Amino acid sequence: MKTIGMLTGISYVSGIDYYRGINERIAKLLPNGSIMPKNSEMVMISVDCDEYVRLLTARDDEAVQEYLLRGIAKIHAAGVDFLVIASNTAHVCYERVRTRFPDLPVLHIADCTAAAARGKGPVGLLGTEPTMRDGSWLKSRLAKHGVEVLVPSSDEDRQRCYKIICDELSFDIFTETSRAFFAELARRLFREGATGGVILGCTEIELLLRQSDVPDVPLFRSAELHIEAAAKVQAAVAE
Q: What is the SS3 assignment for 78?
């Protein structure tokens, strides 16, 4: 079994989802051990989401990346086989990781999402405000796979998404009002040209919005796709 290095804390809620999801899948993918099903071999580093969001909000990309790399350096030092960053927005540091730690393979969340979304037409993207406003680190990676992305045009909507993520979802708070807001955004993107569906491009959003909430709009659950791929790579059933 390969050893996963996971950067989390951004937020801890999605980190719990990743930890549980990878372990549940490993238990199914690998033969039982001598007494019980296998667990994932994993090294986890959790960073402070408040400091991370403070730097994001200040639009200090340099500081954001260096802050995340402090955590990744600890993971690298542990000798893991590959890195999983449990956040879409935190992939902002991907290129710097490749430069700083060229021997550390990274399972990119956008590659996992694109594998499900490509060939289906333009797709919407819901995520944090930085990911929707800029998100070049995610959008360019999706574009390499031929996936065209649309985001909500209203700055007010993008800011409300971010507030819900920071104030509610990152603390395991899920309300019907927020679910209805995200469902309407997904439907609006679909009506405005995202005919291939909508990427839930923040790992907490998919814990709130379910496919049953928008049965007419295909949803691509980025964290779930990332978790599935991570378990398969760890179990050596995928590269």
A: coil
Peptide bond between residue 11 and the one before it cis (omega within 30 degrees of 0) = yes
Find tokens 């730690």 and name the residue.
101
User: DSSP secondary structure string, 161-190?
Assistant: HHHHHHHTGGGT---HHHHHHHHHHHHHHH
**Cα 29 vs. chain centroid, distance in angstroms?**
22
**Residue 71 confidence (pLDDT):** 98
Distance of CA 224 to the CA centre of its chain: 8
Q: What DSSP string runs through 8-72?
A: E-TTHHHHHHHHHHHHHHHHHHSPP-SSS-----EEEEE--HHHHHHHHHTT-HHHHHHHHHHHH
Query: Token pair 């700083």 is at which residue?
Result: 100
- List Cα–Cα distances, 178 to 67, 79, 109, 181, in angstroms: 30, 41, 24, 5
Please tell me whether residue 7 adopts helix, strand or coil conformation.
strand
Q: Tokens 């993520």, residue?
A: 165
CB atoms within 10 A of CB 162: 22
Instruction: Tell whether pTM > 0.70.
Output: yes
Q: What is the pLDDT of residues 123-138, one digit of tens each?
A: 999 999 999 999 899 9
